Amino acid sequence: MCGITECVRVKGVNKVQVTDIRIRSVEKEGKMKAVVSITIDDEFVVHDIKIIEGEKGMFIAMPSRKASDGEYRDIAHPINTATRERLQNMILAKYRETQEEE
Predict the structure, then answer these.
(1) Residue 36: band (very low, low, confident or very high) from pLDDT cuts 50, 70, 90
(2) What is the pTM of this model?
(3) 65-99: pLDDT as tens digits
(4) Can you give the pLDDT at residue 11?
(5) What is the DSSP string of 30-92?
(6) Residue 17, Cα to own-chain centre: how many angstroms?
(7) I need a labelling partner for 2 at 20 to 30 A (CA). Which of 16, 53, 66, 87 fits?
(8) Residues 88, 2, 24, 32: what is their CA dihedral angle, to the nearest 10 degrees?
(9) In this predicted structure, what is the pLDDT of residue 14?
(10) CA separation (Å) from 41 to 21, 28, 69, 88, 95?
């Protein structure tokens, strides 16, 4: 049985569960609306996923670091579009849920 809303399939491995999503709203005005931490299989955490309000709607930005060339590079991210979309859908659903509670 899978966690919060659905599992993420990993090639050659049993399904990976996102077992917790924690949302920290950002109080400042601007495009960044929240910072998120996800827990995978109750054993691995990814911090600093950002929820951004863009021109085409809300999306997530994975944790990144500024490289020596001045560009920002993700330091943790899904490796395919389908997984990214599932993760984004789970996070944005949780964000909307927390907004309704406030």
Answers:
(1) very high
(2) 0.81
(3) 999 999 999 999 998 998 899 999 999 999 999 98
(4) 58
(5) SSEEEEEEEEETTTEEEEEEEEEEETTEEEEE--EEE-TTS-EEESS--SSHHHHHHHHHHHH
(6) 13
(7) 53
(8) 0
(9) 61
(10) 12, 32, 35, 17, 20
- Token readout for 44 is 């691995």
Note whether 43 and 33 are within 8 A (CB).
no
pLDDT, one tens digit per residue, over 38-72 is 999 999 999 999 999 999 999 999 999 999 999 99
Record the tokens describing residue 100, joined without a space.
């309704």
CA 12 – CA 93 distance, rounded (Å):
28
Position 92, amino acid: L
Residue 41 identity (one-letter amino acid): D
Q: Are 46 and 36 in contact (CB under 8 A)?
A: no
pLDDT reported for residue 101 = 81
Q: How many residues does the chain have?
A: 102
Distance CA 5, CA 73 (A): 28
